[in-house]
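Trying the structure run again after the queue cleared.
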Amino acid sequence: MSRRRADAPAAHPRHERRGEARLPPVIATLAAIALYLALPQQLLVTPRYVLPALEVLLLVPLIAINPRRLTRQTKTFRVLSLTLVLLIAASNLAALGVLVHELLNAQVADGRALLVAALQVWLTNVIAFGLAYWELDRGGPVSRTQLPRGELPLADFRFSQDENDDAVGEVADGSSGKSDWVPSLPDYLYVSVTNSTAFSPTDTMPLSTRAKLLMSVQSVSALLTSLLVIARAVSILH
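Done. Tokens:
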């Protein structure tokens, strides 16, 4: 059942919430690891199981610190979580680089396998950058729900809910100002998907320099995948 409008302004303040659920980011991380494991051997810069094993080792203590809800944060927690996202993103960008090199410098006969590999790289790109935006914006998922708004770090992204206070009632009631709304992982994955398909911001605007740099890197890598890899694969199939 959908929530009634009258209930929206009565939503619990962020610092009284239990925090985001642990399961969605775990599923996203494991999906990225599985996509990497399924890549063709020639696209991997290390032995197949080295990086996935390291990523799982980083994920285990993160789950132990916050097994069900993201409510506790330490310096070690932040370092581990950011390192995990960096490894996923860096390994996927490296795989993209090798894929482009293979296309430009080698005779590729199996176009279908190339299409599948390109899709795997693209999907991993979406997940990795979505996790990066989620980890960085306003201090991370723990800070966004546990700290009062006056203590939050500066925002990296401006969502439409952040400026809907003066809209019509059914829209304004779900805004940040009236319902104390904050973005969660699905919101950042949506930003990542739109940036990978439109190659530019859509309804969510980057504010900080690091957000703009990350979105630029993601757009360029998605553009390479779409224009070079997929186009070459289709030409091989024909």
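The first helix runs from residue 23 to 37. Worth checking whether this holds up in the mutant runs.
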